[in-house]
Amino acid sequence: MYKTLIRPILFQFDPEKVHYFTFSLIKFISRLPFVSSLIRFRYFVKGIGLHREVFGLTFKNPVGLAAGFDKNAVLYNELANFGFGFIEIGTVTPRGQVGNPKKRLFRLKEDKGIINRMGFNNEGLEAAITQLKKNQGKLIIGGNIGKNTDTAPEDYTKDYLQCFEALHPYVDYFVLNVSCPNVSSHAKLNDKDYLVELIEAVQDKNKTFDIEKPIVLKIAPDLNTNQLDEIVELVQETKLDGVIASNTSVSREGLKASQTRLEEIGNGGLSGLPIKDKSTAVIKYLSDKSNRSFPIIGVGGIHTANDAIEKLEAGASLVQIYTGFIYEGPKLISDINKAVIAKGL
Q: Is 180 noted as a catalytic residue in this protein?
């Protein structure tokens, strides 16, 4: 029904406007009697074989929603009814910011992809915390944190620490987002020496709490093998809890979309089916190189259950969807979980 009826209608309109319209619609229907129960009945897959112990946390199933979808933590309780095992909110920055100028979100229908240059648009820490206080405890929540666009380089770490400290009571794990191609000073955020400084500062702050929260790093899919070797060394050196592989790509290689169309869109991060194989290759390389010494959350181009299985078999402990959720609908979540049970993974 979603792909044959709902998606064709939604795809007639501006992607960003559709995003907010869909949020409002899900909020509205979830308030209707019995609707949430019906959604859970339709999409929620149960099974002891789905449970995952990762980062010291127990996930009901290995399928999560990637950051960027519920930036301000306004819909995670309703989205949980579709069968996710975890949802990552954010990216959250200390102060709210409007992000990059519109238009900044584009569909590549023939490629089953999306290009975005949102620029960490979000309502800021206080707004996110207000929403997280409404957590009904249905699933694990990750907090994806970043810096404000106008923050001076010498204050980057302060931004991350401010987000980390304020969100600590409300999320189950943290993601340091240093790999988004749509924010300024991308180069510094990928400098190994700075990353060591940032990670150690956040870890020191973590130790000031009674319960320490897992901290993972989100990396780009465009890293070469030397850079991936550095990531492995970084994780082992800092004893980071894990890695998310991967963020969006700046590559436009192999797309069906015309060069004219791509030039009209301009810069931005590419997600969806076009980066599936690249993301899986990064997961496998990290897993093999590290001898599976740390958990990996696999994300990028998951549009079918088999796509998710490929990432799990490549070495991912968990997977996340985003663009695939938009193109394929909520049935994708149950399809993946059923396939995990069938495969005995």
A: yes
> Which residues are documented as binding site for substrate?
71, 116-120, 177, 182, 247-248
Which pTM value belongs to this model? 0.96
Domain ranges of the chain: 2-343
pLDDT of residue 1: 87
Please state the residue numbers annotated as binding site: 67-71, 91, 116-120, 144, 177, 182, 218, 246-248, 272, 301, 322-323
Cα separation values, 82 from 23, 35, 65, Å? 14, 11, 11
DSSP state of 212: P
Helix (H) or strand (E) holding 333: helix 331-343
Annotated binding site for FMN: 67-71, 91, 144, 177, 218, 246, 272, 301, 322-323
Name the active-site residue from 73, 80, 180, 333.
180
Do residues 71 and 331 make contact, with C-beta atoms less than 8 angstroms apart? no
Top-tier CATH class for 2-343: alpha beta
Q: Are 157 and 197 in contact (CB under 8 A)?
A: yes
Torsion of CA 309, 314, 316, 322, to 10 degrees: -50
Residues present in the chain in total:
345
Which residues have CB under 8 Å from 74's CB, separation 6+?
23, 27, 131
pLDDT bracket for residue 184 (50, 70, 90): low
